[in-house]
Design a protein that fits this description.
The chain is of the alpha+beta class and about 220 residues long. It is built from 5 helices and 8 strands. It has a 6-stranded antiparallel β-sheet with strand order 1-2-3-8-5-6, covered by helices on one side. Strands 4-7 form a two-stranded antiparallel ribbon. The longest helix is centred in the first third of the chain and has 19 residues.
Amino acid sequence: NGKEPYELCVSTRDSMTKLQNQDLEGHRFLAFYTLAFSLMGRNVKAIYFNDLLGLPNDAERAEASGELRDLKRTKSDVEDLEKRLTNPKVFPGKIFKDMNNLIALVDCDPALHFRGNEAEFIHQSDSTQPESVAVIHNTCGGHHTMVIVNVADEIKHLSINVRRYGPNPLRSLFENISGKSTPLDSDGKLHLTVQPYQRLWLTKEKVSIPVNLLIRA
């Protein structure tokens, strides 16, 4: 009717097709937000309450209020919410800890400081990078972060030269989501086999996150 769309009024979970494997669906949800936050980079990040917990659309609330944004503004009973968040068999319980820890990582990573550079996709002529694997680079001052997200439901193999994205000589990168060091070869190349919807947050050194911001397993 001559109007331009301003935003999508839909929860992130309901914006994507449902998967039979709910664990894999959880990995995909986390991959989406890892990619989204890394692309937002130095800019202010916002997230609706429903997406913090992986909740679906609240059509009943939106219909009652007449406000389309209420699709993503579920009002939950605290006791019921606590049960769901501590139940690993339901979707909110599957993703809540990892969503919390991802946000803590994003907030504490100095490469995503607001005075830093805009996020950029990494495209290199000397890299072997499947189209379904996104590689994002953020930098501020001497801090560099490379985020790798497999947006496909199949295993992908990745080889990329990371020498120009960090101080030399660079022998390894720290993967902040798994908490493991990732070695580079003698030429400064990173060789990875990434699982379906796997995400990696690579830095020269481990990002320092206050313990009180993290949820332990």
